[in-house]
Amino acid sequence: MKLSLKYYTLKYIVVALLLIIAVWAALFYAFILDEVYDNVDDGLKNRKIQLIKAVYKDEKLLNNVDFEFNEFKIVPISEQECNNRNKFYNRTYYMEYDDDDEPYRVLETCFTDQFGGHRKLVIRTSTVEEDDLIYDLSIALVVLYFFLVLSILFVNGFLLNKAWRPFYAILEKLRNYQFGEKTGNQRQEYSIKEFEQLDEEIDEMIRRNELVFDQQKKFIENASHELQTPLAIMINKIDLSVQDGNIDESTVHLLMDIKGNLTRMTGLNKSLLMLSKIENNQFSATEKVDFNNLIKDVIEAYKDFTDHKGISIEIVERGNFSTSFNSDLAHILISNLLKNAIKYNIPNGFIQVIIERNWLTMMNPGQNHPLDQDRIFSRFYKQSADHSSTGLGLSIVHSIIRQYPDLSIAYRFEDEMHQLIISKK
């Protein structure tokens, strides 16, 4: 699953925080326990000194051979068993109040009484229950962990949203950018230096790309324009040579093949020139265009062609599709859609045009599989191996629609019908 950048970093922060708190909790527990035992041991040592002094003052204390209210006992031992070193250890003893064994810290040492006898002094004191300490500490740490995570989520969400706002603005600008379409030159001010540099670099990259694109369009326009006259002259000379009648049949066939290729080159040249003019916004004048009437006019103009191919056309009017459009571009748009539907139709096929208030659909049967939606409007994409096709018809249609942000075009294959749909946004 793909995550936003801010949540991507947060995921690792949460995991790292869990590990850090776990290690810190182990160290904290060891430190606290050591400090508790150190304090208890100091108390036991002080208690030992007080008891030995008390024994020298009151010999009756030597008879306290078992733990009672004073939490100590004095047991006679031999000289060999006597060791003056303090010995600390933990041990559990039964406590009536809790009706359970509870932990005690015990000091065991040896001293010589006022009569020269050797005595073992054992002092005990209640200490912390480690199980309870671990349980309480764990609860506290779990609460602390969730509190920290929620705090980080809140602070990160607030700070990152604010910090990354310029980045998302730049991303939105790139998302809306269409190659070949001029954008505003308003310079954005950013409080973060890196984002401002990123925005400047992107603007510079777009400017360079647009410059190269404009130069290419200009070159294509000039080259196409300059090629028109030589191509027309060559086709006319071929026609004159064929009409002259002084050449044999094989030469006629050769010249007609050359003429066919030159005618196709002329069509390709005109299409490239048209694309260049459209992308150079040379059809900027607009007026209210009634597409219902325009479609009928274009279909009537192509009637001989459709009759020749045995193709019937049905117009279904469910509304009036009209919008502000350049009248010349509108005619080119409908003509290209109709020619595409005729060219790639089945023998004796049909075309259906459905006109609604916000949609205009032109559909025809043809290949029994859908076309590549990602490439159908690309330049030089051909739906078949037809060599007479320039592969620019639908590219011109797409370029025309791109001139009008309120319109869009889509391709759909449904019920074995290829559909091209122009819709208002």
From TrEMBL:
<keyword id="KW-0812">Transmembrane</keyword>
<protein>
    <recommendedName>
        <fullName>histidine kinase</fullName>
        <ecNumber>2.7.13.3</ecNumber>
    </recommendedName>
</protein>
<keyword id="KW-0472">Membrane</keyword>
<keyword id="KW-1133">Transmembrane helix</keyword>
<keyword id="KW-0808">Transferase</keyword>
<dbReference type="InterPro" id="IPR036890">
    <property type="entry name" value="HATPase_C_sf"/>
</dbReference>
<dbReference type="InterPro" id="IPR003594">
    <property type="entry name" value="HATPase_dom"/>
</dbReference>
<keyword id="KW-0418">Kinase</keyword>
<dbReference type="InterPro" id="IPR003661">
    <property type="entry name" value="HisK_dim/P_dom"/>
</dbReference>
<dbReference type="GO" id="GO:0016301">
    <property type="term" value="F:kinase activity"/>
</dbReference>
<feature type="transmembrane region" description="Helical">
    <location>
        <begin position="12"/>
        <end position="32"/>
    </location>
</feature>
<keyword id="KW-0597">Phosphoprotein</keyword>
<dbReference type="Pfam" id="PF00512">
    <property type="entry name" value="HisKA"/>
</dbReference>
<dbReference type="InterPro" id="IPR005467">
    <property type="entry name" value="His_kinase_dom"/>
</dbReference>
<feature type="domain" description="Histidine kinase">
    <location>
        <begin position="222"/>
        <end position="404"/>
    </location>
</feature>
<feature type="transmembrane region" description="Helical">
    <location>
        <begin position="137"/>
        <end position="160"/>
    </location>
</feature>
<dbReference type="InterPro" id="IPR050428">
    <property type="entry name" value="TCS_sensor_his_kinase"/>
</dbReference>
<dbReference type="InterPro" id="IPR036097">
    <property type="entry name" value="HisK_dim/P_sf"/>
</dbReference>
<dbReference type="Pfam" id="PF02518">
    <property type="entry name" value="HATPase_c"/>
</dbReference>
